[in-house]
Amino acid sequence: MSKSSANIYLVAGATRGIGLALVAEIAEKEPSAVIYAGGRNPSGSSQLIELASKYRGRVELVKYVAADKAGNEAIAKEIGKKHGHIDTVIANAGISNPPGKVHETSVENYEEHFSVNVLGPIVLFQAFRDLLKASSLPRFIAVTSSIGSIGMMDMIPLDVSSYGTSKAALNWVVRKIHFENDWLIAYPQCPGPVDTDMAKAGRARDTTGSFAEVAKLLTLREPAEAASILVRIILESTREKDGGQFHNMEGGRYLW
Predict the structure, then answer these.
(1) Catalytic residue among 9, 55, 167, 254
(2) Which of 64, 163, 187, 254 is catalytic?
(3) CB contact at 8 A, 95 and 113
(4) CB 237 within 8 A of CB 223
(5) Where would a tag sit more exposed on the chain, N or C end, judged by fewer CB atoms within 10 A?
(6) Is 163 a catalytic residue?
(7) Contact, 127 vs 76, CB < 8 A?
(8) pLDDT digits (tens, 9 = 90+) for 109-132
(9) Is residue 199 over pLDDT 60?
(10) C-alpha 108: how far from its chain's center?
(11) Cα 78-142-113 angle, rounded to 5 deg
(12) Rg of the chain over CA atoms, in angstroms?
């Protein structure tokens, strides 16, 4: 198919939280955009179904499983047939399972985090690289966390070793993608503290008290507010100004 003129998005991890809010924000702010909303069970999210109904033909639900090579390639093939390109891929899907220090976290826990939080975006980029290259303004954005900062580790004393390790690795991967693809805008973006189900679950499972202590210093944004800021940052981003940088929500940069 010939390349369409609409801005085409894929938001991975779109069934709840920040991902769901991103789909809603893009659909509202860009009347001509087409957003593919990916999740393990997209039809199980009533809010996502409502968005697809409200923006019929513009919000499309697709089954996305992190690090599933065949599944990711199938989504890319579908989008390629319909549009001939994709403009923005937002790798938002991620997990944060029970917290723990390095010595008390199982190897299996590390492996699960690495599979979803690192291999997931890698497989996603590999599947969509050709479609991104066909765009006139391609962007690959990975939603990360300041917890993945090695330089700020002493300032964020949360006992989430498997999650933090995976986000540090994700940051490296996306920065490497930036250097390897001189036609692409690619960077890791931290959404800051957001009141999502994942954040609530992390606080509920914490037995160390570290979450409660850090929470005293933070003001949580609602997902819709975070999504509004994120979309603005993404749309204003350029390779020269933003590519390969570790972004925060205030327009600054975090330490790697």
Answers:
(1) 167
(2) 163
(3) yes
(4) no
(5) N
(6) yes
(7) yes
(8) 999 999 999 999 999 999 999 999
(9) no
(10) 23
(11) 95
(12) 17
